[in-house]
Amino acid sequence: MDFLSEESVQSLLTYDDLIPAVERALIDLSAGRIQQPVRSIVWVPQHNGAFGQMPAVDGDLMGVKLVTFFQDNRNLPTHQAIIQLFSARTGQPLAAMDGRLITEMRTAAVSAVATRCLAGEDAQVLAILGSGVQARSHLQALRRVSDFPEIRVWSRTADHAQRFADEFGLSVSPTAEAAVRGADVVISVTGTREPLVRGAWLAHGALVCAVGSVGPKNRELDDAALAADIVVESREAAMIESGDLIGAGASVTAELGEVLAGASLPGQGHWTIFKSLGVGATDLAAARIVWERWRAGTR
Question: Which of 27, 172, 202, 267 has the CB geometry, 3.0–4.6 Å to 257, for a possible disulfide?
Answer without folding.
Answer: 27
